[in-house]
Amino acid sequence: AINDYLHHYGVKGQAVFYDATMLIESLPEFAKLGPIILGTSKIGGLPGGHIILIVDYNAKTKSLVCHDPFGDARNQYGNTNGAYVEYDLEWITPYIQVSKDCCRCMRWVI
Questions:
Q1: What does pTM read for this prediction?
Q2: Which of 9, 43, 62, 70 would you call most buried, defined as having the most Cβ atoms within 10 angstroms of its Cβ?
Q3: How confident is the model at residue 104 (pLDDT cuts 50, 70, 90)?
Q4: What is the DSSP string of 24-89?
Q5: Which residues have CB under 8 Å from 47's CB, separation 6+?
């Protein structure tokens, strides 16, 4: 449905879904190829699921650079500015792991 909708409006490419098949350790490499929509669970004290957008990777801090629509999950969303927040890969793993070493995400491929 997403592909059909975007193609209707002239957007080239396709959505590639990884339903518990994307290795978490591969997220930094995939972040270099373009944005990734990442599914999370109970991050920042939320009661259920949530999505964030990975826009880059900071190799110095080993952190995913994200846009989080709720703000900064590291302080229970006390800071509502979620632009370019950095989530340490080790810190975020419990919130994104849906099967052994894998997460659920989507990226756009042209």
A1: 0.90
A2: 43
A3: very high
A4: GGGHHHHHTTS-EEEEEESGGG-SSEEEEEEEEEETTTTEEEEE-TT--GGGTT-S---TTEEEEH
A5: none
For residues 31 and 54, the answer to whether their CB atoms sit within 8 Å is: yes
Token pair, residue 78, equals 């006390």
For residue 85, give the nearest of 59, 64, 108 by alpha carbon: 64
**Whole-Å CA distances, 55 to 15, 38, 63, 93, 100:** 16, 11, 11, 17, 24
* The pLDDT value given to residue 1: 76
Q: What is the pLDDT of residues 60-73, one digit of tens each?
A: 999 999 999 999 99
